[in-house]
UniProtKB/TrEMBL annotation:
<protein>
    <submittedName>
        <fullName>GNAT family N-acetyltransferase</fullName>
        <ecNumber>2.3.1.-</ecNumber>
    </submittedName>
</protein>
<keyword id="KW-0808">Transferase</keyword>
<keyword id="KW-0067">ATP-binding</keyword>
<keyword id="KW-0819">tRNA processing</keyword>
<dbReference type="InterPro" id="IPR007807">
    <property type="entry name" value="TcmA/NAT10_helicase"/>
</dbReference>
<keyword id="KW-0547">Nucleotide-binding</keyword>
<dbReference type="Pfam" id="PF05127">
    <property type="entry name" value="NAT10_TcmA_helicase"/>
</dbReference>
<feature type="domain" description="N-acetyltransferase">
    <location>
        <begin position="387"/>
        <end position="569"/>
    </location>
</feature>
<dbReference type="InterPro" id="IPR032672">
    <property type="entry name" value="TmcA/NAT10/Kre33"/>
</dbReference>
<dbReference type="InterPro" id="IPR013562">
    <property type="entry name" value="TmcA/NAT10_N"/>
</dbReference>
<dbReference type="Pfam" id="PF08351">
    <property type="entry name" value="TmcA_N"/>
</dbReference>
<dbReference type="InterPro" id="IPR016181">
    <property type="entry name" value="Acyl_CoA_acyltransferase"/>
</dbReference>
<dbReference type="Pfam" id="PF13718">
    <property type="entry name" value="GNAT_acetyltr_2"/>
</dbReference>
<dbReference type="InterPro" id="IPR027417">
    <property type="entry name" value="P-loop_NTPase"/>
</dbReference>
<dbReference type="GO" id="GO:0016746">
    <property type="term" value="F:acyltransferase activity"/>
</dbReference>
<dbReference type="InterPro" id="IPR000182">
    <property type="entry name" value="GNAT_dom"/>
</dbReference>
<keyword id="KW-0012">Acyltransferase</keyword>
Length: 661
């Protein structure tokens, strides 16, 4: 066991050596008890500032025993900003998204200090997912083992272990130090100058040009966007900036001339209706990987020049979905489209140790490896794979995640963790020879603990984590018996593009259906997705039947959610068939839930319409018709003509009506 006093001596010697040469950013792991961790971390911060100065801040995220400042609960506001050292207290949970965001702010020579329990205890003492499906039991984190192996196996990572007394404090010298080219001012590099001037020239050619600017993080993308905005503003042009997070574009606004930007530079969220009626010379859409593709295509129809910008790999999603899903659409629709990319890092040096580690750990640059020779695509096979195989075969793990990134526009690092740490998740793979070409992810839904809440879930009193299609069916139909079922929900299905339309996706579904039947406890297979005609056609051809259409749009597809189902057991067939049409008692139960405050009026539209249709008097028909048109929150002004002054009066009216009928 190593004492705090001994550890800080070692830290001091290490920092002394480190500041004498140019080093890459590094990860420093302080593994031990909380008081021990934090004492060393506080000393490290103080010493680090003495060696490297205080021009840039040192930040702390998570619990801090001292009274010094900590970052807010969600560090997303730091995106695009710069820090010299960040301490991340991960003593109980390490959130991948926050880990990546914090690391992305650190400049060259900087440190990411992570506080954690002893490495040997990670599997059972550290969690990586915000929440598991309700009622799911886990035997420890397999991702913890994966991450531990990655960290220990990286020679640039510094580690101090309290219990074992291990101290490993390596240097990470930079082989090729970036030189500052003063001839590029105000640009940081010649690459940034070339890309910036080329984009500015394209924007000057005419209207309705669409440009894309992509980069891995730390390449100066946000600064360049600000420079382009300033160029338009300098010519008395008007600029609209669209982003899913207002805080993320603060650095962009900070570098524009405030006097010129006051009237002519505006921020809008992606779904703002004000954009449609506005007249701008340039529309900048930042973080496009976090915006649904259909919504992006609508934004691109603006009658002005447009810049689409995204980080290819990192905290915005994956960005790979943007490259593979949106850009082909843009290229086919718009004649004046030009793509630009920044390659050279500015915030850190080439071949940065910390960035390389994070890229390997979270498979940020994982791509599907296509074989050099032609494969016989008609000869493929499918099999179920367990998480242990992924843990033991890192290359297979990376290939599976690369496929999933193509399947879903906004696949994140947490999806990677779920492949190893979600016991309710099942994985089926398709191979052509030894090449993985298809993946199917199934989520198990339903267990005894969910069943014990059948009344609360179906009425709207409770909503538990996971069990998405099961809870949706129980709530929408007001049928508690759905909570007694065991379902398999298709979460993702993907096939590499060269192997599509060859029956591989159907073969994966057939294998999953066969396994569900052999399981003998699975009542149905479901799938929930944003409605698109060609996707619905696929599921219909695969033997699934339409069951439900949602009221809200899917965040990834910007379309209404639809649920398709393929019943397996007799119980499943009976439950789904019986509840296709609601009975009078189910309609009454839904309205009682609304009266009790368990569900919103918008969730009772169908029941209000049924009551109106069966009402004997005209006024009741009119009131019910008005209620059935309530899409979200009820507005009492819509019911003033009927004498209602508040929602409680409407509920009292409904209570009497239900008791009479």
């Amino acid at each position: 066991m190593i004492a705090v006093s001994d550890a800080v001596k070692q830290i001091d010697e290490w920092l002394t050596q480190r500041c004498q040469s140019v080093n890459h950013r590094q990860l420093l792991m302080l593994c031990g008890e909380k008081v021990w961790q934090q004492a060393i971390a506080e000393y490290t911060i103080d010493s680090f500032q003495q060696y490297y100065g205080t021009e840039l801040p040192c930040s702390w995220y998570g619990e801090r025993l001292s009274n010094k400042a900590v970052l807010p609960h969600h560090p997303n506001h730091l995106i695009g900003q710069q820090t010299l050292l960040v301490t991340y207290n991960a003593s109980e949970r390490l959130a991948a998204k926050h880990f990546l965001v914090l690391a992305g702010t650190i400049v060259h020579q900087g440190l990411l200090v992570v506080l954690s329990p002893s490495l040997a205890t990670w599997r059972h003492s550290l969690t990586f997912l915000a929440k598991q499906s309700y009622g799911t039991q886990t035997s420890g984190s397999a991702f913890a083992t994966y991450l531990q192996n990655m960290i220990v196996g990286d020679s640039s990572v510094a580690i101090i272990e309290q219990q074992s007394g291990e101290i490993r404090l390596p240097l990470a010298p930079v082989e090729h130090v970036m030189s500052v080219d003063t001839n590029c001012a105000p640009f940081a590099t010649s690459e940034q100058r070339v890309v910036g001037t080329a984009m500015k020239a394209k924007l000057a050619e005419g209207e309705n040009y669409i440009l894309s600017l992509t980069a891995r993080r730390g390449r100066g993308k946000t600064w360049l966007l600000g420079w382009l905005c300033s160029a338009v503003l300098a010519e008395a042009g008007r600029v609209a900036v669209v982003s899913s997070r207002a805080s993320a574009i603060k650095p962009l606004f900070a570098q524009t001339d405030a006097s010129k930007a006051q009237q002519n530079l505006r921020f809008y969220p992606p779904d703002s209706s004000d954009l449609k009626d506005s007249d701008y010379d340039l529309l900048v859409i930042d973080e496009v990987a976090s915006i649904p593709i259909p919504l992006l295509l609508t934004l691109c129809q603006a009658r002005c020049n447009c810049i689409l910008s995204t980080t290819i790999d990192g905290y915005e999603g994956t960005g790979q979905g943007f490259l593979h899903r949106l850009l082909p659409e843009i290229q086919s629709r718009y004649r004046h489209y030009n793509a630009f990319q920044l390659e050279q890092p500015l915030r850190w040096h080439l071949n940065d140790s910390l960035e390389n580690l994070l890229t390997r750990v979270f498979c940020l640059s994982a791509t599907i490896k296509m074989p050099e020779s032609q494969l016989n695509t008609s000869d493929f096979y499918c099999r179920q794979v367990c998480s242990t195989e992924l843990l033991e075969q890192p290359e297979l793990f990376r290939q599976v995640f690369a496929l999933l990134k193509l399947a879903h526009y906004q696949t994140t690092a947490e999806d990677l963790i779920r492949l190893l740490d979600s016991p309710e998740q099942l994985l089926f793979l398709a191979y052509v020879e030894s090449q993985v070409v298809g993946v199917l992810v199934i989520i198990e839904e339903g267990n005894s603990q969910v069943s014990s809440l059948r009344e609360e879930i179906s009425s709207g009193q409770r909503r538990v984590a996971g069990h998405m299609s099961l809870q949706l069916c129980a709530f929408n139909t007001r049928a508690p018996e759905f909570c007694d079922l065991k379902l398999w929900r298709v979460n993702r299905i993907a096939v590499a593009s060269p192997f599509r339309r060859r029956g591989i996706a159907s073969a994966l579904l057939d294998l999953a259906t066969q396994c569900a039947r052999e399981h003998q406890q699975i009542d149905a297979i479901t799938t929930l997705f944003g409605s698109q005609p060609e996707i619905e056609q696929f599921w219909q051809q695969s033997g699934f039947s339409f069951y439900y259409r949602g009221r809200k749009t899917n965040k990834a597809s910007n379309a209404e959610n639809v649920l398709y189902v393929s019943p397996i057991s007799r119980t499943g067939k009976h439950c789904f068939n019986l509840n296709k049409t609601l009975t009078p008692s189910q309609h009454k139960a839904k309205i009682r839930d609304y009266i009790a405050g368990y569900r919103a009026a918008g969730h009772c539209q169908q029941s209000f319409a049924w009551f109106g249709k069966n009402a004997n008097d005209i006024q009741t028909q009119q009131i019910m018709q008005r209620l059935s048109e309530t899409s979200r929150k009820l507005r009492i002004t819509d019911f003033a003509e009927f004498g209602f002054k508040c929602e409680s009066q409407i509920k009292e009216y409904l209570r009497r009506l239900i008791n009479v009928t």
